[in-house]
Amino acid sequence: MTCPRCGAKNPGRAQFCARCGAGLLPKNGDPGLKDLLEKGEVSLLLTRARAWAEAEPKLGEAQRWLGHATFFGGRHPEALKHYQAASEADAKDMESALQAGALCLALGKAVDAETYLERALGAEAPVADSPLASLYGKSPQAWMAAAWLNLGLARRENGRIKEGVECLSRATELDAASPLAWSVLGDLHLRLGDFSSAIASYEQALTHVEEGPSALALHNDLGVACFRSGRYEQALEHFKRVIHRDPRNANAIHNLGLLYLRQGDPAALAEDLQSVLKADDAAGVLLGLTRSLVDAARQEARSHDPAGLVGVSQAMRQVFDLIQRAAVSDATVLILGENGTGKEMVARAVHQSSARRDKPFIAVHCAALPEALLESELFGYEKGAFTGAYRAKLGRFELAEGGTLFLDEIGDLDPGLQVKLLRVIQERTYERLGGTKTLKADVRIIAATHDDLRRKVGDGRFREDLYYRLYVIPILLPPLRQRREDIGELARFFLMRTSRRAGKRFTTLHPAALERLMDHDWPGNVRELENVVERAVALYDDTVLLPEYLGLEIGAKLLSAPAPVEGLTPVPLQQEAVSTEKDLIIKALKQNHYHIMKAAQSLGISRRTLYRKLEKHGIPGARDVSGS
User: Mean per-residue pLDDT for 452-478?
Assistant: First the structure.
């Protein structure tokens, strides 16, 4: 075998050149990767695939095979990089796009996952003997179903629940025997309050799973959907079925207890429990149920809003009070707080407590879209308003008619749109793009931001008149580190909810685990705490959550958090060690080789925001800086 680098000849099955150490390809250039994969020779497969990709770095097929080699070798972050390269090289490569999207989703990159999964849906299905056929199936229909399923999961993670429902519905149309698609669809219907659809989805999922833990978890979910829809007899049947097969299933026992207490029939609860519990188990299970019900009662007592916000601290009690005060009027609300503090949940709580609760709640992320697209999303457009506008489209103001429009990250709104939003707030009128008819806006506006809007007003980057129009009812959400008394309550809430959904046995936190949680700084706030608990439940199955399950070090960040993507070094924008914002931006540019997009991602801001900050601080563009 001839070395492509130095030309030295090597034995036929040699993996590396004896002279220069380069990876080797067969003489005819055919790496024979498919045969190596079928034989399970992963080490040689990886060597040959890497040599091929090095010899032809712009060839999509070579990058795809290197992705397969690293994926089957368990090196998923590296595999993602090569699948992404393959997808960029060939936009019609569904195999790479779908796998890149699935890996992005698995590695917590849900926004990137949407990009690749949408690309997969517009590409050509791979051949039946694809190495990934064992994951996604052999038929084009199976690959399309997998793409819709993963896109639905990504949109769920990104909070786009209604769009997630649409994707999962398409997945079930293409693969009606997928219990995962049906069960996740049921979860999303449940979150939207569509209990009948949730029940129908869970029932479909049950028809495609064998008896076992998955079936019991579905029966429990189905019982919850029936319970919340007022179908108590059906809920009772499902909870009892779970308990008869698993007498120590804490979730089902807890739900059964809540149901009987709701009906005011504790005697029936005692009778049912005695019929399924052994004498030596009864005392422990009943004690656990008592604690569970007490926790549930406390949670219900402290939740002063329909959105289920959790908190016992003085700061959160003030938030609950402001939510109720804001709900009785139509005044504009401005929610302020760091990322991960729950600003959208507060907005939903205000909406659900108001007289508009039966009308739509529409959320728009102002930083996620460019100015032109955001304008059309907000106000809609008429047919022929611009190239590609083949039909009229309703904007978010029209979709939210009679309800609430939530404008997240309002601080990133471009100056032109600030003027138009100000007009809507003042005059309650607007026009579609390309239209002449003036429309009325019967909408309650709630805005949110993690930025200091007063500073932006002082810097001339945010209109003062718009600021005061928004700052009618301000609600400040404190970071989690400033309300540590809520950490235990939140952790127990997430533990019970996640354990119930996953069919696990967790019922309580170990005191040492709670101490570990209390000692953590929580830079990601409530969202980070939820992720820590969800990960622990996913990786372990026990009745008590122990401190070693958390993956936390006292006073430190997650020990087992995924490593950053090569060439993209995380630099938190709020990091106190850097004296000025300008220094931090320059540091991020240098660490990311003056790549604007990567620098913006590492700072946790949008590319548009980074360009504005470069202009604000007089920092030259990436190309100029690199040349200095």
Answer: 93
